[in-house]
Amino acid sequence: xxxxxxxxxxxxxxxxxxxxxxxxxxxxxxxxxxxxxxxxxxxxxxxxxxxxxxxxxxxxxxxxxxxxxxxxxxxxxxxxxxxxxxxxxxxxxxx
Length: 95
Hints:
The chain contains five helices and no strands. It is mainly α. The relative contact order is 0.18.
């Protein structure tokens, strides 16, 4: 079983990248020639993060769980920023 400290650490490593990742992902998406390339890279990295986390759960190795959660935290915040160029044109300035 996992202790409450371990469980809290899993949440922390997931949410900690939210402090800086929106800025980093925003700059990457703006500097890229392709709108979809950074987003696809983050989605692919998120898939790797899921695989790492699943492997950690399967083998019951906490370090793998931490690694997978940290990758997922980085990627999901970047995916949020990367989707803005696609979602923006859908919504008009009128409410």
